[in-house]
Request: fold
Amino acid sequence: MSFALSPARPLRLPPVLAAVAVLAVLALPLAPGGAEGGAGPADAVSALVVLYAALRAVRERRRPLSATAVVVLGMPVVGLAVAAMGAASPGAGLTGLGRYLQVFVLVPAAVLLLVRDRADFRLLAWSFVGLAGWQGAVGVHQYVTGTGASYQGEEIRAVGTFGPQDVMGMATVVAFGLVCALGLALGRTTPVRHRVVAGACALGLLLPLALSFSRGAWIATVLTCGAQLALAGLRRALKVVAAAVAAGVVLVGGLGVGTAMLQERINSIGQVTDAPDQSVIDRYTLWAAATGMWREHPVTGVGLKNFPAYRDGHASLALSSGSDTEGAGAAYRKQPLLSPHNMYLLVLSEQGLLGLLALAGSWLALLVCGLRGWWRVRRDGRGLDCALVGCGLLVWQLVDFAYADIGGPSTVLTAVVFGAVAWWALVGAA
Reply:
């Protein structure tokens, strides 16, 4: 008797793992000074992801993007091209153009092509949660052992592996993971154990987010989670709010996790007009400078990468020389203030109304399409978790852009987020 052995089928990994690789690289520690600018390892991987997505599209001989996707993702190109021509030098123009195209056009388009279905989208969302858990664990360890970035004279600020030059990096990663975990937990058709694990992850990520002492990330997360709960339904909203309140009481009230400093930081949110600290004063001054640049060049702005050159001519004497950074393995240095820390004002000052309308128009189109997709799936619940993740990530980013702009190693994560949002808004909701 003979037995015929069937040939083993080759193992085919989902293409979305290429996008997950970008997140995996962001989990690696950065060398001291590696957050000061320029392309990092994750940026190099993102370029390979774009190349891989393009090669797959050519090999499969199919139309890679729909006409709607081309229009929505391609809208920022016009304003960017005009602003690049107004840069101080061709090199600066090309550098700025490449960065914007990477974050808002090329990487999002690649991620859109690599996500095949909702299962791939959930895998990407869980990857965000995993990265957030790792960075959050590093951040909590920094707080407990006093090895974090300097905050009020103590090295306790949780910054993960990003270092003190990118203090928003860990907060951004953790916030994205929390938004993804909450969206996955609020789904209806996924297995119960998956929703329970996602809910536990969301509650666990509250601690490192708090220890980041990032007011902008707190505000964006609270507003986004509130929006997700509203989209999920009243009953689920009440359950999640009760669980979050209980977790907050245990962490802050019972365990006393950073009670005094956290309370002071939270109170400072309401003092931005009455008694602002120097960081808030600097931010207001930079915002005023960006507005002044726009008034002088309302249509096309001052040109890409030109904000630092025009800053001193429009900023008042209240602006400090820079922010002090040290700790988390890095020596003390004065970090210059080279952007307004507001994405909308950065685009307005450097690209004018033309650039802002194009970029914000692309984001608004994604939001409308994403909410339309939520409206389609809200009744039967199939894909509701994907809708909450996709819409939640976009809402968080749009709110956070009022307090931050692109820059640093964590910027490439924003590009992957826009890719995930674009997939849900333009493909997954159908």
